[in-house]
Amino acid sequence: MAVENAANADPAPAVTVTATRAVAPSKNRCELATFDLPYITFYYNQKLLLYRAPAAAGGLDFPDAAARVTAALADALRVFYPLAGRIRQDPDGALAVEGDEGAEVVEAEAEGVAVDDLAGGDCGEEAEKIMQHLVPYTGVMNLEGLRRPLLAVQLTKLKDGLAVGCAFNHAVLDGTSTWHFMSSWAELCRRGGGAPSLLPVHDRSLARSVRVRLDLPASAESHEKTDPNGPKKALVARVFSFPEAAVARIKAAANAALPAGAKPFSTFQSLGAHIWRAVSRARGLGPSDVTAFAVFADCRSRLDPPLPPAYFGNLIQAVFTGVPAGMLLGGPPELAAGLLQKAIDEHDAAAVARRLEEYEAAPKLFHYSDAGPNCVAVGSSPRFRVYDVDFGFGRPERVRSGGNNKFDGMDRMVYLYPGRGGEGGIDVELALQPEPMRRLQEDADFLCASS
């Protein structure tokens, strides 16, 4: 009987369940690369875009516009996910972006302020003060990204339009990535969702995979107190618009005396030299005072192999050149342009790698004043298509930078934007101490080129 029962029993199963568990999506994590780390003690990068209410639509419905822009921001952050996280430091001292806590969005009103009050060609001191209240996170160091959102947005209702003020943590992205994000966000707002036309590349190991330990200060305030130049001084910001014809004249003057077969100076090198000389005059530098010019060069195309424009992060390095002011101002325009051309051309893949290796061997927490007291630094590019950022209610009337990252020692921080009218014009936004700014505004050689 026992044998018969055994014969009729079910055979042993071929599959045995050994464990069961729930699996959630992995948390977003993005290691910061060596290119990112020098900016941890810089400040949030602020951008302000001013939009006029469409007249044909009977004005701008601010609650509806704010709701659409905010919904599109949520869509954009799903794709550009590092901006939704926070900076974290692991036990080895390396930095990464983790999490999805999100960006900060503030809504505000300034209904007594018209777009033309802020976007006109001659923005006075009062307009400059108002604009500083339209961008968030003024005075906030990138180090605060360990506790604060990495992106803050302020949507302000104006008398006849809308101001979109943004603050980006500069330890997470550079200008190329900033405007990639802005154009994608606007695209999603116009289309009502979906995916942006150009997807970001988030793998920062493509740029550099070395893990670097940073000994961070206890707070932003404690780092600021170690600046040998002390607290920042009061600055005056102005925009000088150079139409296409003026840019062409400046470029022609720089190239006029070049020998046959010499490499011509670019628009950037020619205009940069023009600005450098004018600011040095405005500063009243002595002949032996050394003045420097710095450009934050995009290294995407300089690497070997090169990285695509869609690489999302910081991929810039400051390229410096310097000369005594007497030589700069006593020489012809091609001398200054030639110094810029030489410094930029020499910053190839090998130079980029050397700079990275130097930083990795001796990481440093920078102050803006480290550049020296007579530095002119360019922190943007007229190649950025800033006036194509259309959320669905037209192109911006004016694009500006906030007050962050404009300091004495780099008080001559220059932002170059394409002119709103296109066609080759360039807007030059710069900040100086009051007396040098007064001299610059009275400098006929500087201003005649823009007339």
Question: What's this, in brief?
Answer:
This protein has 451 residues and is an alpha+beta fold.
Assess the beta-strand content as a share of residues.
Answer: 15-25%
Tell me the span between the first and last alpha carbons: 112 Å
Mean pLDDT: 92
Which regions contain 5 or more consecutive residues with pLDDT less than 50?
none
State the major sheet.
6 strands, mixed
Strand order of the largest sheet: 8-14-13-11-9-10
Question: Could you explain the architecture of this structure?
Answer:
By secondary structure, this protein is an alpha+beta fold. It is 30% helix and 20% strand. A 6-stranded mixed β-sheet has the order 8-14-13-11-9-10. The chain has a 5-stranded mixed β-sheet with strand order 5-6-7-2-12. The protein has a 3-stranded antiparallel β-sheet with strand order 1-4-3, with no helix packed on it.
Keywords:
single chain, 451 residues, globular, 14 strands, 13 helices, alpha+beta
Layout of strands and helices, then pairs:
Elements: H1 2-8, E1 29-31, E2 45-52, H2 62-79, E3 86-89, E4 95-98, E5 104-110, H3 115-119, H4 125-132, E6 151-158, E7 161-168, H5 175-191, H6 220-224, E8 236-242, H7 244-255, H8 267-283, E9 290-298, E10 316-324, H9 325-330, H10 333-346, H11 349-361, E11 375-378, E12 398-401, E13 412-418, E14 426-432, H12 434-441, H13 444-448
Parallel strand pairs: 5-6, 9-11, 11-13
Antiparallel strand pairs: 1-4, 2-7, 2-12, 3-4, 6-7, 8-14, 9-10, 13-14
